[in-house]
Amino acid sequence: QLQLQESGPGLLKSSETLSLTCSVSGDSIRNNYYFCGWIRQPPGKGLEWVGSYSYTGSTFYSPSLESRVIISVDTSKNQFFLKLSSVTAADTAVYYCATSRNGYKHFDYWGQGTLVNISS
Amino acid sequence: SYELTQPPSVSVSPGQTARITCSGKALPKQYGYWYQQKAGQAPVLVISQNSERPSGIPERFSGSSSGTTLTLTISGVQAEDEADYYCQSSDDYGSAPVVFGRGTKLTVL
């Protein structure tokens, strides 16, 4: 069974860079046709896609966040990463990592999520 | 930017059928997906590729697509089905490969 686990600081100050890691266990992300992604959810609000990395080597970013986001992968460590620069209070959210294994752009497996608070 | 439109809320009594819709211009060409999110938990995929039910999802959950509308149907609703439901798809042009609807709160009366 595939499992994902987010890790990273839970509190940041405005203008800092948010860095999160998603550790994948139960399979190698070099296998299959992984479509990995980061999704966030501000308190009391809906899901917002942040960006994704595809098995093809391509990265995709939300148009509203594209100027501040970098997603990368380390297949040797079975991890993928999120960096979001110049954060503000509006970036306060639960951040989920998630993935599918069949190449289609959706998410079968999700981490439990990690709350990131941005203080001003 | 591309949007998927869902009703904010749907209410049904136990045992009844709940239908939640999601509309979007690209849905005739792009697969749609449905996620269930209970309070304080991560989302769970309940319908894949418009109508496929992943392993472990109860048979009372079904999905369909017609034109620009996806529909999630929950037959014989149970109290445990009370949750937020989100549709997800992609736009036609590649600029937004993942888009979520704003979510529908299903209340079991």
Description:
The complex is a heterodimer of chains A (120) and B (109). Chain A is built from no helices and eleven strands. Chain A is an all-beta fold. In chain A, strand 7 (69-74) and strand 8 form a beta hairpin. Chain B is an all-beta fold. Chain B has strands spanning 9-12, 18-23, 33-37, 44-47, 61-66, 69-74, 83-89, 99-100, 104-108. The termini of chain B are far apart. The model of chain B has no long low-confidence stretch (mean pLDDT 96). In chain B, 0% of the residues lie in helices and 41% in strands. Chain B is globular and about 40 Å long. Classes of the chains: A mainly beta (120), B mainly beta (109).
What are the main properties of this structure?
heterodimer; A: 120 residues; mainly beta; 7-stranded mixed sheet; B: 109 residues; 6-stranded mixed sheet; 3-stranded antiparallel sheet; 9 strands; globular
Question: Helices and strands in order, then pairings?
Answer:
The complex is a heterodimer of chains A (120) and B (109).
Chain A: E1 3-7, E2 11-13, E3 18-25, E4 35-41, E5 48-54, E6 59-61, E7 69-74, E8 79-84, E9 93-100, E10 109-110, E11 114-119
Chain B: E1 9-12, E2 18-23, E3 33-37, E4 44-47, E5 61-66, E6 69-74, E7 83-89, E8 99-100, E9 104-108
Parallel strand pairs in B: 1-9
Antiparallel strand pairs in B: 2-6, 3-4, 3-7, 5-6, 7-8, 7-9
Give a brief rundown of this model.
The complex is a heterodimer of chains A (120) and B (109). Chain A is mainly beta and 120 residues long.
- Rg of Cα set of chain B: 13 Å
Class per helix and strand makeup of chain B: mainly beta
Number of separate strands of chain A: 11
Mean pLDDT of chain A: 95
- First-last Cα distance of chain B: 35 Å
DSSP helix fraction of chain B? under 10%
Q: What is the element string of chain B, with H for helices and E for strands?
A: EEEEEEEEE
How many DSSP H or I helices of chain B? 0
* Quaternary organisation of the protein chains: heterodimer
The percent range for helix content of chain A is under 10%
Average pLDDT across residues of chain B?
A: 96
- Following the backbone from N to C, one meets helices and strands of chain A in this order, namely EEEEEEEEEEE
Unreliable runs of chain B: none
Give the largest chain-chain interface (CB within 8 Å). A-B, 22 and 25 residues
The major β-sheet of chain A equals: 7 strands, mixed
Largest sheet of chain B: 6 strands, mixed
End-to-end Cα distance of chain A, whole Å, is 40 Å
Low-confidence stretches of chain A: none
Strand content of chain A: over 45%
Shape, per Cα inertia axes of chain A: globular
Counting DSSP H or I runs of 4 or more residues, the number of helices of chain A is 0
